[in-house]
User: Which sequence fits this backbone?
């Protein structure tokens, strides 16, 4: 299938120079009326040229200064958001570790005192079915001191990151 | 006028320098580029999305992404192509998310009522209606080729297609649009004749 004609550049040149159709060669006009490819090209390119001019007239773009200012503002917001992402992550980790730490501390308190709390918890949350054995099994693998150190560090880490990255 | 201390002035200077450092391009260079490209880019976005409002939003987003890209551009043409590529991708994403505007904003009744509009306006309406029936890539390709005057290499770069494919794709899109334009004009002429008889 032929999808090109040698006279296409001539048609485009005549259109770009504003010579099409009235002020171009009779030879080119005759060719365009006989050649389907160039006829399509002339029709489409003319329509687009008119539409482009209309669109340019209708375009009310903001000033360069406004676009620059908005971009700066947005860049700062994005930078702040990006800086906050690791803090949020660390906070999430800290929260989960803190929960583990609470369980470990619960395990460390005297049995009699814990039993009273268990009774109180069972009254508050009747559906709660875990026993101290469950908790013991869960926390026995890791020593309590390790829980305290890691948990404490993770709780303090967000503050340390914030102080290190804050502008002022 | 409030007193400003030297340390405050230094702080303001530091803030300004930090803000400028966010982008590779400085404000002066950006202003020059923007003044050369903004109208053409807006026209492109407006026509391929069919919505001037969406074009306004995408214009700002395009320049923001361009500034954040931190790509070293060899020439002005390269910068321009990057802008159009970003704009095309944004419009494509918007189309996928259903943000596309109505490509034909003029209902047929209104068209029928305004038979005496100027010929160029009518042709633009025909083009808008015909464009609405094209695929997004066909619209983008035709606009770049015949409104922007981009060559095949630039079109390929902007649309993410092979340079060798542009020739055939452009030919098909052009033929399809030309057929649609002729059909629209024929229909319009028949309708005018019928109204005249009535």
Assistant:
């Amino acid at each position: 299938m032929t999808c090109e004609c040698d006279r296409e550049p001539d048609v485009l040149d005549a259109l770009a120079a504003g010579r099409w159709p009235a002020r171009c060669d009779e030879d080119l006009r005759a060719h365009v009326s006989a050649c389907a490819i160039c006829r399509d090209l002339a029709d489409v390119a003319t329509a687009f040229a008119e539409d482009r001019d209309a669109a340019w007239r209708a375009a009310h773009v903001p000033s360069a200064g406004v676009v620059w200012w908005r971009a700066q503002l947005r860049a700062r917001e994005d930078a702040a958001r990006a800086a906050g992402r690791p803090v949020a992550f660390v906070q999430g980790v800290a929260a989960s570790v803190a929960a583990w730490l609470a369980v470990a501390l619960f395990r460390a308190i005297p049995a009699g005192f814990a039993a009273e709390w268990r009774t109180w918890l069972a009254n508050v949350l009747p559906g709660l079915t875990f026993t101290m054995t469950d908790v013991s099994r869960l926390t026995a693998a890791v020593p309590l001191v390790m829980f305290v150190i890691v948990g404490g560090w993770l709780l303090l880490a967000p503050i340390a990151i914030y102080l290190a990255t804050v502008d002022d | 006028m409030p007193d400003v201390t030297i340390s405050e002035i230094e702080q303001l200077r530091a803030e300004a320098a930090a803000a400028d450092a966010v982008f590779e391009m400085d404000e002066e260079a950006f202003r020059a580029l923007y003044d050369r490209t903004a109208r053409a880019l807006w026209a492109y976005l407006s026509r391929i999305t069919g919505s001037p409002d969406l074009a306004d939003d995408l214009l700002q987003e395009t320049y923001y992404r361009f500034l954040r890209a931190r790509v070293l551009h060899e020439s002005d043409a390269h910068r321009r192509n990057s802008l159009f590529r970003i704009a095309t991708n944004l419009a494509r994403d918007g189309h996928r998310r259903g943000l596309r505007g109505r490509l034909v904003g003029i209902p047929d009744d209104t068209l029928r009522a305004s038979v005496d509009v100027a010929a160029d306006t009518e042709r633009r309406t025909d083009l808008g209606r015909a464009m609405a029936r094209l695929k997004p890539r066909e619209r983008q390709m035709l606009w770049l080729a015949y409104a922007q005057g981009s060559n095949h290499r630039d079109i390929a770069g902007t649309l993410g297609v092979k340079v060798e494919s542009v020739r055939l794709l452009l030919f098909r899109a052009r033929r399809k649009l030309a057929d649609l334009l002729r059909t629209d004009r024929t229909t319009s002429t028949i309708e005018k004749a019928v109204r005249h008889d009535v």
